[in-house]
Amino acid sequence: MDNTDAEIAKTQEERRKMEEKASLTSVTFDADLYGGAGSDKFEGYALSIPVNEDEEEQEEGRDVVRRMASFTGPRAVDIPKVSEDDEEVGFRRPQKITDREDEYRRRRLKRIISPERHDPFASGEKTPDASVRTYADVMKEQALDREKEETLRAISKKKEEEKSKRQEAPHAAAPAPATKRRNRWDQSQDDGSSNGTAKKPKITSASSSDWDLPDSTPGVGRWDATPTPGRVGDATPSISRRNRWDETPTPGRLADADATPAGAVTPGATPSGMTWDATPKIAGMATPTPKRQRSRWDETPASMGSATPLPGAATPAAAFTPGLTPVGGVDLATPTPGAINLRGNITPEQFNLLRWERDIEERNRPLTDEELDALFPQEGYSILDPPASYVPIRTPARKLLATPTPMGTPLYAIPEENRGQHYDVPKEAPGGLPFMKPEDYQYFGALLNEEEEEQLSPEEQKERKIMKLLLKVKNGTPPQRKTALRQLTDKACEFGAGPLFNRILPLLMQPTLEDQERHLLVKVIDRVLYKLDELVRPFVHKILVVIEPLLIDEDYYARVEGREIISNLSKAAGLASMIAAMRPDIDNIDEYVRNTTARAFSVVASALGIPALLPFLKAVCQSKKSWQARHTGIKIVQQIAILMGCAVLPHLRSLVEIIENGLNDENQKVRTITALSLAALAEAAAPYGIESFDSVLKPLWKGIRSHRGKVLAAFLKAIGFIIPLMDAMYASYYTKEVMIILIREFQSPDEEMKKIVLKVVKQCVSTEGVEADYIRSDILPEFFKHFWVRRMALDRRNYKQLVETTVEITNKVGVADIVGRVVEDLKDESEPYRRMVMETIEKVLANLGASDIDPRLEELLIDGILYAFQEQTSDDANVMLNGFGAVVNALGERVKAYLPQICGTIKWRLNNKSAKVRQQAADLISRIAIVMKQCREEQLMGHLGVVLYEYLGEEYPEVLGSILGALKAIVNVIGMTKMTPPIKDLLPRLTPILKNRHEKVQENCIDLVGRIADRGAEFVPAREWMRICFELLEMLKAHKKGIRRATVNTFGYIAKAIGPQDVLATLLNNLKVQERQNRVCTTVAIAIVAETCSPFTVLPALMNEYRVPELNVQNGVLKSLSFLFEYIGEMGKDYIYAVTPLLEDALMDRDLVHRQTAASAVKHMALGVAGLGCEDALVHLLNFVWPNIFETSPHVINAVMEAIEGMRVALGAATILNYCLQGLFHPARKVREVYWKIYNSLYIGSQDSLVAAYPILEDEENNIFSRPELMMFV
Amino acid sequence: MQASDRFNINSQLEHLQAKYVGTGHADLNRFEWAVNIQRDSYASYIGHYPMLSYFALAENESIGRERYNFMQKMLLPCGLPPDREEE
């Protein structure tokens, strides 16, 4: 072959590899540890907890933001990922929480940390102070809020109607439904396109902009958060690809029409929220493309666009009105859309922008009273008080970027001359405080000017102290953090709940918070909670506001943390306070609030017990006042079921009774959630508790006939979970009832419905009462017609569900039916579909075997798998490989006829130029080797062995590893003697490969070498084995434990084959190396060699080595002894006298580690020889061990205690008790403590046997201490 | 004790031991220890049937009576606790 050509091909190949490196790596690495880069690393986890099953409910009545009937992509897809490629190389860099949050979760930032509330328990009968918020106040506020929301909704609805009426005339031709999409693109699109004609209505809507705002605000999130593959498909694909460059708003492009606050150009667009990015291209531009899937690039604080002073704008103030100034009069009442887009994620660049922006705002800051006084004439003006209803904005999201104005944040208590100090280089933090990030200034800025420390009031000094401690916890080094945390905990009561929480909680709302920081702050809350106990009552709601979002975090540990805090909180504050705090949120207008509240309530239920909460739940679920309350109440039940699992069983009936009315509720959402809750309850209760569901069976089964869509899906889900609880007879009956509906819904286009239907079919089919014939005749035809289509293979969740359901059906109807139906599809042209078929066949055959399969089907099957295997282009999950292996193994000897064909394919593919193909071919050999042996195809295997041997020069480590694995499989089944190539040729070829540092290669190679050393050592000369020994030493450095373990075992085999002397010399030499892991492995290897070759061949040399005056060597020898005695067990009785002098010496050594290791050797020795008559030596050794009981180093004391425990076993408890007695009542406390510790473990270990050995105590005047029974004698 | 030791097995050991009835600590006095010893002894007598029958034989009681007696004695095996001196 031409050399150059090959080289070019190789280079090309390499480049291609580099490009798909990610997918390659995913095969090698342990998928659990490293995660497949090609597939989602969260595969198999619930990607998002279903926060959204009723998400759309708050949108009713808002046509603008109506969502589609179904959504196809998993929500998690649009969580912005920090580019994963960077992270492969090293540690994950700290991630901001907001970066991975979706729009829904980010709503937490909009919640207000409510002012503290009245604690009725603390004040007793007293009437609360008017200034304190009581429960009644909060409820009133909630009611007001709701009323307001409703009014606003009504107004906007009316407006919409008017608008559409007015627009109907000019747009008579335009199809109405097209403009009625749920996002505001279209809304403003209309504005844009009708720019010329409909000028009038637009001006009106602009003037009323602040009325529209609250309504459209949540929409901002929704339209870009929802994955909309469907819509992307509509647009031209090339445009719909994310193009970062046209999305980055740079301050330099101010004049760009896109970036301009639309207020200047198209006034009509202003009310639609996020001006610059939501503005459609103006009429002149061709298509307003819906290209904006969310990317990190749009997270740039939106303020830049809007705060820019426009050249055209009249006053600078006008330019940034729509956005951010907290004093802007118009938008005080509502959170402005501008604030919502502030997602933190501050890069240095952005920080610059921020600073620049602050600078601008600084110049444009509102005038102070003094300045106004100076400006205005003294007479002719009077100063008015602000209106009573005026409330400064508290929304934290706004605070982040808001200019700290004198009226706003405490930051601006800083005196005049300090102003502007932190706009440039961050000032050095004083007094050993940790580094402050730019975002932290808002909270900790006050710490920077330390000069007036002395003038502060005690209160302020306390605040400052808290701030310092918090900053240390948040940003400090671990020791700083530790002491700060301790101080916070210890002084929690002294600081008081108020000041503490007022400092901590805002920090948790900080948009730029990172996971680690949040974890630490949450920890602070936890500790503080524990200390403050019932003092937290006024702050319960405050804390909940910041902790509840943790419950829906995507990070499992965050959820657990959140639960723990809430559970501690409820234990500290008590049920009444918790209910009082959360009751108002139950029918909050915001769905987010209700969702998190429901989850929090379920945690309270698990903390304080379900019965305590039942009366409350009952009341809530039957609330007449609002459907939201009922909805939330039922949702609480659902969450309780999910959280507590089978612990709901004792209360199952009452829980079902509480929610059962919801099935007939007038509100659709309530019906849906009720069905979902029932599903959760049934799932939690499985397999018990069917009797509790009796009352809901009828409404459920009636419901599936009358409902459609989402409600129906929920009802079906509930039924799917209830049927498995039933007896066979009932299950069969009810299954038939529901099956009609299910079969009808098979053709539903709704993805969600599809998944649920599949799941329910699976559940129904798996119950006992359902007969195979029924399934075959009634379900299968429709099932295959609607589900076994290519489209199903494209969505991962559909795919999985379909495979599971089909496997379940197969369990009932048998292999032949199902495989016969799908086997043709192995040759389908769509690869994902083929893969799905293959996976199903694999699972089915692995479950049920292949005895059902007739010769014709067998032929088809083999043909199909060969085709599918050869045609695969990418197989990261090894589906094809596993499928092939499963089929071949299931067929067993029946494959014999096809083996030549299979081997031909393998051989051909081993020679393929794609590394991936070669790897798969080699992997396939290792899967089918056993079957080849069964088919007595030794000759073929020998041939394959030779072929593989020739490919040992393989360059790609992945492939080489697989080839070695294949060789190993062949050697394993045909044995050392029959192996071709002969072992004496094979092994020398493996020696250099041992040098390869790739994990997969190492692992397979050492396995193979170990196998040969074990079974066929005699085929190889001793010199070769010694050479291998040296190579093996290097392998002890491997990171993977399996490799190290295989290596030390191989040492044992080699030593057995060529005698221990040479191997031992090598190993003992290796004790001198520096690296600890290497030494430890060496000691293990020595011990193994001693075990396999009998200790007497090793001990002399080993003990001799102890004379080397080198710490590492001596410790290594001791450790070897320790392992040695551990491995040889009772064989140790022959050697104990030999090593006693050595151990004596070690136990008296000055070096701690000597004593520690010797003590653990003594332990193993004692445990091994217990009851074999070596007590004299053991007592002697115990006398050397005993003085070490006062050691303080944890490892040493641990080893010593274990040695004493070992002695207890070997010598009996009485002996050790006698050692103990001398110190139990020693005058020195430190001594007593140690002795009691020993006594206690002695007591726990052998309480009974101590009875006979207790000392005789004399009676005293009032007390009898003697034990006369023991004196009895017959 | 160093900060790092605070959470390791050794510190937990004492906590763990304290969970068992009958274990002791540095402030245990003679009386309390003796009570533990007595109770352990009676529990052991009752637990080993041969012992129980041996005592029954020696005291000329029925085995059931002997068992009952031992159990009763476990209540206040050493009599009332002595008054604490100082404190």
UniProtKB/TrEMBL annotation, chain A:
<feature type="domain" description="TOG">
    <location>
        <begin position="852"/>
        <end position="1086"/>
    </location>
</feature>
<dbReference type="GO" id="GO:0005689">
    <property type="term" value="C:U12-type spliceosomal complex"/>
</dbReference>
<dbReference type="GO" id="GO:0003729">
    <property type="term" value="F:mRNA binding"/>
</dbReference>
<feature type="region of interest" description="Disordered">
    <location>
        <begin position="1"/>
        <end position="21"/>
    </location>
</feature>
<comment type="similarity">
    <text>Belongs to the SF3B1 family.</text>
</comment>
<keyword id="KW-0677">Repeat</keyword>
<dbReference type="GO" id="GO:0071013">
    <property type="term" value="C:catalytic step 2 spliceosome"/>
</dbReference>
<dbReference type="Pfam" id="PF22646">
    <property type="entry name" value="PPP2R1A-like_HEAT"/>
</dbReference>
<dbReference type="GO" id="GO:0005686">
    <property type="term" value="C:U2 snRNP"/>
</dbReference>
<feature type="compositionally biased region" description="Low complexity">
    <location>
        <begin position="307"/>
        <end position="316"/>
    </location>
</feature>
<dbReference type="InterPro" id="IPR038737">
    <property type="entry name" value="SF3b_su1-like"/>
</dbReference>
<feature type="compositionally biased region" description="Low complexity">
    <location>
        <begin position="257"/>
        <end position="271"/>
    </location>
</feature>
<feature type="region of interest" description="Disordered">
    <location>
        <begin position="82"/>
        <end position="316"/>
    </location>
</feature>
<keyword id="KW-0507">mRNA processing</keyword>
<feature type="compositionally biased region" description="Basic and acidic residues">
    <location>
        <begin position="96"/>
        <end position="105"/>
    </location>
</feature>
<comment type="similarity">
    <text>Belongs to the phosphatase 2A regulatory subunit A family.</text>
</comment>
<dbReference type="Pfam" id="PF08920">
    <property type="entry name" value="SF3b1"/>
</dbReference>
<keyword id="KW-0539">Nucleus</keyword>
<dbReference type="GO" id="GO:0000245">
    <property type="term" value="P:spliceosomal complex assembly"/>
</dbReference>
<feature type="repeat" description="HEAT">
    <location>
        <begin position="655"/>
        <end position="693"/>
    </location>
</feature>
<feature type="compositionally biased region" description="Basic and acidic residues">
    <location>
        <begin position="7"/>
        <end position="21"/>
    </location>
</feature>
<keyword id="KW-0508">mRNA splicing</keyword>
TrEMBL record, chain B:
<protein>
    <recommendedName>
        <fullName>Splicing factor subunit</fullName>
    </recommendedName>
</protein>
<dbReference type="GO" id="GO:0005686">
    <property type="term" value="C:U2 snRNP"/>
</dbReference>
<dbReference type="InterPro" id="IPR017089">
    <property type="entry name" value="Splicing_factor_3B_subunit_5"/>
</dbReference>
<dbReference type="GO" id="GO:0000398">
    <property type="term" value="P:mRNA splicing, via spliceosome"/>
</dbReference>
<dbReference type="InterPro" id="IPR009846">
    <property type="entry name" value="SF3b5/RDS3-10"/>
</dbReference>
<dbReference type="Pfam" id="PF07189">
    <property type="entry name" value="SF3b10"/>
</dbReference>
<comment type="similarity">
    <text>Belongs to the SF3B5 family.</text>
</comment>
<dbReference type="GO" id="GO:0071011">
    <property type="term" value="C:precatalytic spliceosome"/>
</dbReference>
